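Data availability (excerpt). All sequences and predicted token strings are deposited with the supplementary files. A representative entry, NADAR domain-containing protein, is shown inline so that the format can be inspected without opening the archive.
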Amino acid sequence: MYKKATYFNYLLLAEEIMASNDPSTIKKLGNASTMRQRQAIGTELSCRDFDHEEWRKNKALNKMLLKIMYTVVRAKFEQNEQLFNMLIETGDACLIEASQTDLFWGIGCSMDSQKIKIIDNWRGSNHMGNLLMQLRNEFKFGCKAKKTTITKK
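Structure token line:
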């Protein structure tokens, strides 16, 4: 969220994101796309409306996002033995982010949807699931593994 705010030159918003320790507040701050939404949260009003499509379609930004998330998620699993073990215990299972609304990190289907079972039905990219599978392989084999990606045929 911080990188998103700085990319669009929302410096006050970036400061607010860094000052918060509450993940839910950070997410709200980073996802507020209109002045009205920012006003409801009590944040920077002087910046233009946020264009989520501009953010999602920019390949350089997506690459940066994936690198940042890789670093953050890797650190999370390295620092928490219980989470580390849970990830390893998934074996060779295909991991997904079952988010109906997040087409970047998730698959675009909810957990209870029948579409979840068929990869061709996924509307999203499943970057989070792919990242988790990559990290699982790296941890299992003790080296930097080749990126794991589940793609549609």
